[in-house]
């Protein structure tokens, strides 16, 4: 990931509804959710949610696929991983012991 891609991703997540939307999509992996269901669960008007989903899609953090008459959105975890790694690249400045607390805190979420 380059700086421009990171800025696009961070900008997309810097708005409360989009952050809530992305977190919801992550929780619903790998099935994803229909756009209307995302709007309903977050109590956001459907046209507003469409705009938020479009921003997340342009940033590469969400993907849409048509299933019958619904558009199903999924979090793009590979893109999010790339964004996270971009942010943490050389986080320890050559001192791996500085990264241990961060790695320890991330590890319990995925046993």
What is the topology, as strand order, of the major beta sheet? 1-3-2
Identify the overall geometry. Answer: elongated
* Beta-strand content: 5-15%
Question: Tell me, what is the CATH class?
Answer: Mainly Alpha
User: What is the N-to-C order of secondary-structure elements (H for helix, E for strand)?
Assistant: HHEHHEEHH
Instruction: Give the helix/strand class.
Output: alpha+beta
Helix content: 55-70%
List the uncertain runs.
Answer: none
What's the architecture, going by CATH? Orthogonal Bundle
Radius of gyration: 16 Å
Put simply, the count of helices is 6
CATH level 3 topology: Arc Repressor Mutant, subunit A
Give an account of the 3D structure.
Helix 1 (3-13) crosses helix 5, helix 2 packs across helix 4 (46-58) and helix 3 (35-42) crosses helix 4. The chain is built from 6 helices and 3 strands; from the N terminus they run ααβααββαα. It has a 3-stranded antiparallel sheet. It has 111 residues and is α+β, with helices and mostly antiparallel strands. The chain is elongated and about 50 Å long. It has helices spanning 3-13, 16-27, 35-42, 46-58, 77-88, 100-106, and strands at residues 33-34, 62-67, 70-75. The two termini are 27 Å apart. The protein has one domain (3-109): Winged helix-like DNA-binding domain superfamily/Winged helix DNA-binding domain (Arc Repressor Mutant, subunit A, Orthogonal Bundle). A hairpin with a 2-residue loop joins strand 2 (62-67) and strand 3 (70-75).
Give the helix/strand layout:
Blueprint: H1 3-13, H2 16-27, E1 33-34, H3 35-42, H4 46-58, E2 62-67, E3 70-75, H5 77-88, H6 100-106
Antiparallel strand pairs: 1-3, 2-3
Helix pairs in contact: 1-4, 1-5, 2-4, 3-4
Pfam family, one: HTH_20
Organism: Terrihabitans rhizophilus
Protein name: Helix-turn-helix domain-containing protein
